[in-house]
Amino acid sequence: MLRKIKQVYSNLTPNLADGFYRKRVLSTLGKLSVYVVIGLSLVMSSCEQDAEVDPPKFVKKPVITCLMTPKSNFVEAKLNYTRPYYGDQSNRTIEHITDATLVLEDLNLGAKDTFSHTGLGLYQVLLKNVMLISNHKYELRVIMKDGQVHKAQSTIPPPADFANLTVNYATQGKEYEETDPWGGPTYTVHPVTIEFSYKGLNQGFYVSPQLEGAAKNTQGEEAQFELYFNEETQEGLGNKPIVFFNRTNFYSGFGLNGPFKLSELRGTIYTMDKAYRDLYLVQWQDDENPFQEPILYNSNFSEGAIGVFGSYDFSTGSVELK
Predict the structure, then answer these.
(1) Which tens digit of pLDDT belongs to each residue from 291-316?
(2) How is residue 284 annotated by DSSP?
């Protein structure tokens, strides 16, 4: 700051030949510098004062969770109240909501079904009028005893389908030997690089492939490897394919020896709406660490309720690696 002030004064007095005027300017600069230092000292000293801040006031809110899939005509929902996060945590009792009315409606067709409370805040329904259909929009209405209504909507995603998955390439790198650092035997590491794409999913829906790979030797024995991705779920791109890329390894030795040839990918592909995807991602942030900050769950319910009404689909199968 002082450098900037000096530069300003130099720019203002470049043509003052008389040293008297320069002395007056520098004298003024010196006084101003003292005032700046004193001002900064006062500001810094005021920042050192302690302040007591009350924790946020606790307001009890309903927590609603309902996830559904067209793979089943059985739907259930869980209703509880929030507990205080600050203050005394000795009472860990969950307050269940047992006197609400839940109605599920297909907004495309107008069909409705009502849940039954089965105990401990659990509501269930075996659908009779409503059918869970891809790309249909549904609304869950939770009517509290006091008349307050909480609403949320979910659109059933397109079916998950292994026919939409295409392996772009799958290669093995140069294998190498490693020794167990704990004194065990030497084993062989087989690097693998795989890229595949998933097509036909519109924006607003997400896909998550939960897959493992397999490689077989000449005796038909199999080595398996897991696939992990930086983004476990990706949003649909309409006509453009969604690309997943992974570098991983599998291991041989211990009686299982190569050479190996990559054989297949297998597992389960999930499609989901945004609400289900948000819940899926945020649940991994909760590691039950008592010192971690509160986790903010994304809620798609109205009128101050916290919770998720979401939908998903899945398909189990395999695809050959050529």
Answers:
(1) 666 666 789 999 999 999 999 999 99
(2) G
